Amino acid sequence: VVVLGEVLVGEGWSLSGIGGERQEVVSFNGEPVTFSSTSRIGNANLQFFWTLDRDQLNFLFVANSTEPYVGIGLGYNAMSPSDVVVVDRDNGVSEYRLVGRSAQILTQPSGRYEGVSQDATRAGQLKGRFSANLSALSLDPGNINIIWAFGPTSNSDITYHSLRGVIGGFSFSNPTTEVASTSSLKSILIAHGLMMATAWIIIAPFAIISARLLRFRDPLWFHVHKFGNITAVSLFLVAIIIGLIEGSRSHKVHFGIGVAMLITVTIHVTGGFLRPHKDEPYRELWYRVHFTTGSMLWLLGVVNTFLGIKIADAGPWSRVVVGVITGL
């Protein structure tokens, strides 16, 4: 091939040869690998490279994510049941069978994928490669569903993942430069994040500030403070129930902060109902405990909101929005 032009496109190099034929070259474990086509999955931080020779697909995927693993499966419209290739940063590449929320490693390959390998040498990026005979799998190269998932590991095994999606009707025979995936997060987990952010980034600060800035409007400040906190705590309790039922406990810091907040909320709310009158001897001690637990809740809520944004891989815009609101 005589190279006439060379332009860096995303992860790979795009080469133009005589006759306008283009090739995509990707570094895989330090060696250049050539493919005929590439496509970005814009809202999933994924990029695919492949060559289709009749029904034989040579496929490589690049995932830009800090999560420990990424999984890809061809020919499914749901996560379960399915056979997937999982690239695990710490434990290598394997085939898994997903059944419900459990993942069983296949000691004997399913036969769906061949030549499975990985490249995890670059921080914040995972690459996986395999080949598949689409005809043998009864798959139409012009219309294939692709499932994908990013997730954490626990005890050297992959765990239930909330960050996932399905790319419907992907075409290997007539590719486009960029396609979209379905929503990567379940709606119920998006609701979990929105309720937590609303509680601790908007309502709780307003309730805290009212106790200081509206003191001259007694008892208005007290009612604003009281019902603001009740609203924030109510949203928090609903959100944490959703997280416990639908989320993953493998994000240990996020989960641990949530548990710490639940304990602190219990102390704070109980203390609120036990508030002594102004002339009682323990009023000053009560105030210090109430102020401290309230401030801790707000601080932990802000930290966990940013951790949740990172886990959801929601993008920099969400951090900016939450940061601006928190600053205000």
How is the main sheet built? 6 strands, mixed
- CATH overall fold name of the largest domain: Immunoglobulin-like
Low-confidence stretches: 1-10, 15-20
- Percent of residues in beta strands: 25-35%
- Assign the CATH architecture of the largest domain: Sandwich
Strand order of the largest sheet: 12-13-7-6-5-18
Taken from the alpha-carbon principal axes, the silhouette is elongated
Protein name: Cytochrome b561 domain-containing protein
Domain Cytochrome b561: 155-328
Subcellular location: Membrane
Keywords: Electron transport, Membrane, Signal, Transmembrane, Transmembrane helix, Transport
How does this model look, in words?
It contains 5 helices and 18 strands. The strands form 4 sheets. Strands 12-13-7-6-5-18 form a 6-stranded mixed sheet, with no helix packed on it. The protein folds into 2 domains: 5-179, Immunoglobulin-like (Sandwich), CATH 2.60.40; 187-327, Four Helix Bundle (Hemerythrin (Met), subunit A) (Up-down Bundle), CATH 1.20.120. A hairpin with a 5-residue loop joins strand 2 and strand 3. The protein has 328 residues and is an alpha+beta fold.
